[in-house]
Amino acid sequence: MIYLTKIIDSLADRKSFYCGKSSLDHYIHKQVDQDICRKLAVCFIVTDKNCKIKGYYTLSNDNIPADELPEEYKMKFPKAYSHLPVTLLGRLAVDQKYQVSGLGKLLLIDALKRSYEVALKSIGSMAIIVSPLDTEAEKFYQKYGFVKLPDSAKMFLPMKTVGQLFG
Fold first, then answer.
1. pTM: predicted TM-score of the whole model, two decimal places
2. What is residue 92's three-state secondary structure?
3. Which helix H or strand E contains 118, and what residues bound it?
4. Which long-range contacts (CB under 8 A, 24 or more apart) does 37-40 make?
5. Element (H, E) at 121
6. Domain 6-166 belongs to what topology?
7. What is the pLDDT of residues 48-72, one digit of tens each?
8. Could you tell me the maximum CA-CA distance found in the chain, to the nearest angstrom?
9. What does the angle CA 9 – CA 5 – CA 146 come to, to the nearest 5 degrees?
10. How far apart are CA 123 and CA 42, in angstroms?
11. For residue 4, is pLDDT > 80?
């Protein structure tokens, strides 16, 4: 299987990454190694020929309360499950030099594909969850089919929908 990204490594130049969102810049500069070491997230990157990071995303396991789902989705799951397993797309960022290149879309597709394959073969996950930082990010995810969870800042994309893209 060919992927667009690779797992972050020590050769990647993290210091030059600048996406314009301070929390996302800080994460790749200072926090990512700690999260990886603690097994809190896996970080996937795209680099240029000089190992400068063009974009990145993180994936983790998570769960959501079943009662947070919209009614049309809630009724599809057994009532015995108070929480449902999901994949958290925790961060997705593109360096400002590449923000108009479509790299964000490619990173998202890569994350969806990885998440679907893991859900299919290794670890149960009924959806992919994101918590957009702002309205710009929320519009980005809406464009690709993510649905806002009622009474929450989170958005989700059912794995069944993802499977229609890659299945």
1. 0.94
2. strand
3. helix 103-121
4. none
5. helix 103-121
6. Aminopeptidase (3.40.630)
7. 989 999 999 999 999 999 988 888 8
8. 52
9. 125
10. 15
11. no
118 vs 44: CA distance, rounded Å: 15
163: which 2 tokens? 């499977």
Answer whether residue 2 shows pLDDT above 50: no
The tokens for 161 are 């929908």
| CA proximity to 88, closest of 157, 21, 23 | 157
Can you tell me the distance from the alpha carbon of 104 to that of 111, in angstroms, rounded to the nearest whole number?
11
Q: Which residues contact 83 (CB under 8 A, 6 or more apart)?
A: 63, 64, 65, 66
Tokens of 34: 């700690």
CB of 94 closer than 8 Å to CB of 136: no
Report how far residue 122's alpha carbon sits from residue 124's, in angstroms, rounded to the nearest whole number.
7
Q: In which element (H, E) is residue 83 found? A: strand 83-94
The catalytic residues are 141
Start-to-end CA span in the chain (Å)? 14
**CA separation for the pair 106, 70 (Å, rounded):** 28
Domain ranges within the chain, ordered by starting residue: 6-166
Q: Looking at residue 78, what DSSP letter applies?
A: -
Question: What are the Cα distances from residue 98, in Å, to 4, 32, 40, 56, 145?
Answer: 15, 21, 27, 12, 23
Which position has the token pair 């969806």?
Answer: 112
